[in-house]
Design brief:
8 helices; alpha+beta
Length: about 220
């Protein structure tokens, strides 16, 4: 019985502060409180007296029942555990919820032309830097997909670049990218399946991300 009560205390103390866990923490607390309260209020059988045996009660003016309960070390241990549960419960209830992390709001982009050199600056290198990508000559703002196109994402090599050939070949290797100071990739050498795959990617980007510009050749 004592082990069961201690297990309830451990579960109650490990409950997180998330609002969804409040009901669970309350159940653990009140169940533990009921268990320990009933245990403290119970009176043990007299020593050397088998359960169910009727005894004659004698009144002793020199001692009282509350004193005998306080003298029981088990009751002291249970009272200490109950106090620990109460402290953890009310401390968790009073703790404020963690503040949600928010990214700085960025102004809307105006549709414009981007050269490969200009596009390279929008690679999401910092939290304040937008992420732009070119697909089939169209430039998309994929900043809200930072988990995929950011520096640590699986498509991170495409950030700030023309990703057309890599998407067509389903390859994320840097060899799929044209040099930013060279001409735009004409996509020569793609077979029919790769062209179809690229078309599907283009439709996906148009339906999911904002079209913010057009990719044009470098001016010098």
């Amino acid at each position: 019985m004592i082990a069961f009560g201690l297990q309830l205390a451990a579960v109650s103390s490990r409950t997180t502060h998330h609002p969804k866990d409040t009901l669970t923490r309350q159940r653990h607390f009140f169940l533990s409180f009921f268990f320990f309260s009933s245990f403290l209020d119970s009176s043990p059988n007299p020593p050397n007296q088998p359960p169910g045996t009727t005894t004659t009660t004698t009144h002793n003016t020199d001692s009282e029942t509350p004193m005998s309960s306080l003298a029981n070390p088990v009751n002291w241990i249970l009272a200490a555990v109950l106090g620990y549960i109460s402290y953890n419960y009310f401390s968790a209830s009073a703790a404020p919820p963690p503040a949600a992390a928010t990214r700085p709001k960025q102004p809307a982009l105006v549709f414009k032309e981007y050269t490969p050199k200009e596009l390279a600056a929008f690679d999401g290198r910092t939290a304040e830097t937008r992420i732009l990508m070119a697909v089939q000559g169209k430039v998309f703002d994929v900043t809200r997909g930072r988990n995929f196109y950011g520096p640590d994402g699986p498509y991170g090599n495409f950030a700030g670049r023309d990703a057309s050939r890599g998407l067509a070949k389903n390859s994320f290797d840097k060899s799929m990218l044209s040099p930013i100071d060279g001409p735009i990739d004409t996509l020569e050498g793609l077979d029919d399946d790769e062209k179809e795959a690229l078309h599907d990617w283009g439709a996906l980007f148009e339906g999911k991300y904002q079209l913010v510009g057009k990719l044009v050749e470098n001016k010098d």
